[in-house]
Amino acid sequence: MKNLLIILTILLTLTSYSQSLEGVWETYNDESGELKSEVKIYLKNGKLYGKIIKLHNLKIDLKDAKCYDCKDYRKNQPVLGMEIISGLTKDGKYWEGDEVLLDPNNGKVYDAKLWITKNNELAVRGYIGLIYRTQYWKKK
């Protein structure tokens, strides 16, 4: 009986394991699959944030990688170090928020939903109304 309890405990532990969103995630170009950036995701005061900590395969000089089209305090600021995920709250298995996901390539801010997939990728879904696009990031 004792061995059965140990086996059940181990199985329950393995099936309930889920990867944390916190950490460094690699982002990829949707069309080419080329590595674009590394984003550090972290918790602050119970909310989820993310900032770009490294850029890859730039077609321009790093000094020119700025958010030229941003409409807020990030306008003309360097993309490296920029907060692109701001203040998501947990709702079940999802982290969600309104106007919390910035695309520094076009300056648009989206509603967002993030979650870990069965493949241990981070699904990052940005919404404008009912239209959405999902990217899949890989943990570094």
Automatic annotation (TrEMBL):
UniProt source species: Brumimicrobium aurantiacum
Q: Which residue range or ranges hold the DUF2147 domain?
A: 23-139
Q: What is this protein called?
A: DUF2147 domain-containing protein
Q: Which InterPro entries match?
A: DUF2147
Which range is the signal sequence, renumbered to this chain?
Answer: none
User: Coiled-coil annotation: which residues?
Assistant: none
